[in-house]
Amino acid sequence: MAKIIAGVGTSHTPAIGAAVDNGKTGEPYWIPLFKGYEPSRKWMEEVKPDVVIMVYNDHVNAFDFKVIPTFAIGCAEEFPIADEGWGARPVPAVKGYPEFAAHLVQELVLDEFDITIVNEMQVDHGLTVPMTLMFDSPKEWPCRVIPLAVNVVQYPAPTGNRCYNLGKAIKKAVEAWDEDLKVVIFGTGGMSHQIQNRRAGLINKEFDARFLDGLTRDPEGLAKIPPIEYLREAGNEAIELVMWLIMRGALGKDVEEVYRFYHVPASSTGVGNIILETKEFHEQRKGKVAA
Ligand code: DHB
Ligand code: FE
Question: Quick check: is 263 catalytic?
């Protein structure tokens, strides 16, 4: 059966993608950030998932303001890279997994989560920057990706609690797929940032640290944070963090935090990265290393 073995939380700041695409990763501004992601990349190379479920948000590129689904699953064979105004990023198109994606939609809808089916969609920095951060710059991405787009650009965004419960339902849906697959789920966006208006540039390191602690130790408590608190405490765009709760809900109760990195700033963002292994996968991996 398919299994979610781990979750990755990471910011998706578009300037990070631009730094890679324009050969700037060796500049003093960027060195600490890319160094901080090295252990995560190494982890990913070792773990080699078959499928990534990428919980991310579109920034009015695939969906314009005509239609904005709250939760949407990409069921296409392939997802082209969106042109966000500077040409499409020079990264490979993302290969989907239509059969598995359709299964997830079916299970989730029957479990009373109203998921929008998307059969044709371009993907923007919300998805491609986490791919670059975790997989580097290969000719082809090394695994299939199921995009799960969450609306956090037009209010009302879903609550953290709704997201956490959706994550739990995703765990069940994945485990109902009868094929041995190693699945890693991403929660992306955040952490604290506000990119517009009077409070532009706001970053709240304490909020971000509490969020990372809570993700590992007290996700139920974290799920109770109301949307307004993200905005008030950590900036308008910090609402993107509710997507990390989908990832966390999909891992089950007990997790092992195997890596954490935090860096301020990248553009306007407090950048966070965390890797949480399920207890079962962690024990398995420890056993292998010891043997
Ligand atoms: C920035 C961060 C984002 O999450 C985003 O979608 C756009 C810009 C920034 O920090 O510049
Ligand atoms: Fe964003």
Answer: no
Closest listed residue to residue 190, CA positions, set 138, 150, 155: 150
Q: Is the CB of 12 under 6 A from ligand 1?
A: yes
Q: Apex CA 126: angle with CA 123 and CA 128, to 5°?
A: 65
pTM, to two decimals: 0.98
- The rounded mean pLDDT for the chain is 97
Contact partners, residue 92, CB within 8 Å, separation at least 6: 138, 139, 140, 141
Residue 197, classed as helix, strand or coil, is coil
Rounded distance from Cα 261 to ligand 2 centre (Å) = 19
All domains in the chain, ordered by first residue: 3-290 (3.40.830.10)
Pocket probe mutation, ligand 1, options 10, 58, 193, max atoms within 8 Å of Cβ: 193
- Tell me the per-residue pLDDT of 208-249, one tens digit each, with 9 for 90 and over: 999 999 999 999 999 999 999 999 999 999 999 999 999 999
How far is the CA of 127 from the CAs of 2, 55, 162, 189, 193, in angstroms?
Answer: 22, 8, 21, 9, 18
Give 57 Cα–ligand 2 centroid separation in angstroms: 7
Q: Ligand 1: does its nearest atom lie under 6 Å from the Cβ of 102?
A: no
DSSP annotation of 235 reads -
Give CA–CA dist 222/255, Å, rounded. Answer: 15
Mean pLDDT, residues 77-88 taken together: 97
Q: Which ligand is nearest to the CA of 268?
A: 1
Active site residue 282: no
Among 59, 193, 263, 282, the one annotated catalytic: 193
- The answer to whether the CB of 57 is under 6 A from ligand 1 is no
Instruction: Answer yes or no: is pLDDT of 289 > 80.
Output: no
pLDDT in tens, 10-42: 999 999 999 999 999 999 999 999 999 999 999
